[in-house]
Amino acid sequence: MPAFTAPDGTRLAHHSRGEGAPLLCLPGGPMRACAYLGDLGGLTRHRRLELLDLRGTGDSERPADPATYRCDHQVADVEAFRNHLGLDRVDLLAHSAAGDLALLYAVRHPEHVRSLTLVTARARALGVDFTPGHRAEAAELRAAEPWFGDGREAYGRIWAGTASDADFDAATPFFYGRWDDTARAHAKSEAGQTNEEAAGRYATAEAFRPAAARAVVATWDVPVLLVSGALDSGPLPRVAATVADLFARAESAVIPGAGHFPWLDDPRLFTETVAGFLDRQE
């Protein structure tokens, strides 16, 4: 398995899948091993995915200093990853919580980013968060689902910060466009993939300087794609469009019927959307 050393001496692993021009992929969670990204719905037919296991996850080492789990400290890991691959400019894709890491990297190293793809991604780095109201709005879209009754109350407790493990299990279907065998297997794979200590340290307020970040992206001459799921709450499609407006060059795409993992819900459309965006940058 390929690996490299971060500036603080932590050994970090990455995984290569597919063929073609490289696409650097950062997993969300926060702090979940990259295995759950799979082949991103078949995107490996168009790009060579270079998937990073963030420090303390998957095959990467745990750092000596747990404070380095904070996402702004991990910017140096992404820069070391770029250098390890020998790339001057990179196409960068981030899912979910990794949106903040990708944004922080882009703000600090704009000269090394060729394009940025944000998939159902956070934007706390730009001062945009997803509220309990957003979560409730998206949840009501699933009212006809057979699991909705038990799941809705559990979902509310998650965002209120009072959830039990059983609540997380009951609310899991909200994150998928279809609660079928594929979704169940994907959800089950999360066991053992997330570094809970790291997740708790990842996105504290001290990591972000939203006003400064907005000033950079407002004039940043790099193409950005924001992909959202029509049934997802983080972000709602209209919130993703608001985030897109903060960039000098951004477009947004909504995958109908998709949740937080749109490459599972509609692999063909997801792949066409992302590959089409990347191909236009050639």
Question: What features would you describe in this structure?
Answer:
- A hairpin with a 5-residue loop joins strand 1 and strand 2.
- With 282 residues, the chain is an alpha/beta fold.
- Helix 3 packs antiparallel against helix 4.
- The radius of gyration is 18 Å and the shape is globular.
- It is built from eleven helices and eight strands.
- The protein has a single domain, classed as Alpha/Beta hydrolase fold, catalytic domain (Rossmann fold), CATH 3.40.50.1820.
- The two termini are 30 Å apart.
Quick synopsis:
The chain is 35% helix and 16% strand.
Helix content: 25-40%
Q: What CATH architecture would you give?
A: 3-Layer(aba) Sandwich
Low-pLDDT windows of residues: none
Q: CATH fold name, please?
A: Rossmann fold
Taking the alpha carbons of the first and last residues, their distance comes to 30 Å
Give the overall shape: globular
Number of helix segments? 11
User: In CATH, what is the class?
Assistant: Alpha Beta
Structural class: alpha/beta
